[in-house]
Amino acid sequence: GPTQIKDSIKMPTRPGYMLALLAIVGLAAAQIPDVVIPLTNENFEHDTQAATGQTTGHWFVLFNSPQHHRSKQASELWAELAQDEDKEVIFAEADLDDKENKRLALRFKQLQPPVGVLFRDRQMFVMPGAIKDATKESVTAFWKGGYEGQGLAVPKEAAKPDPSVIEEATKVDWGRVKFGFGMLLFGFLFKNWAKNMAKEREKKEAAAARAAGGATGGAGAAPTAAAAAGKAKSS
To answer: Which of 60, 84, 134, 135 has the fewest CB atoms found within 10 Å of its own CB?
Structure first.
């Protein structure tokens, strides 16, 4: 009858089943670390899978800036939240001022650190308000449901430069370097040669002009002397 059907679909209540269920729940909880995970260029996408499926869990990332006067306060809050045994998200932190994280800072350039960002459901949810006003309760309320309706597209990870391309672009062609240096040296020597030749030409032209002037002066002096002698005789 109906009672037999109802009894047949009841969940088993044997102790073994309950122990197995508790073990599964415990295993899931154990997979969430109780410390803040540091994220960098190298491990951000690999660990969070922020733009590639988000199959590693829900991540609440603190994008921080040590230069900000609230940086330490934000880090301490995240460390406290990571120790919460009832959490269902992984707490992590990324230093956008670190020179090793330039690609990460460029990827999330629209963020103003320090700021908390929840990654889940293939989206990212930026926690509103100033970090100075954030508390353990407000952050917990956000990841538990306060994030809904605020989803943004996750920026794609910038492609890593191909080492072979970088090597080719920075390779020094010593043949061209030598050729270029030779051309510069040739140009310098030719310029000096041309300048010296011009000076020599000017000297020769000046000497010729002086010689021509002297000859003209000598030819004009002879008639004058003859005229003076004739005048003396007539007198």
So the answer is: 135
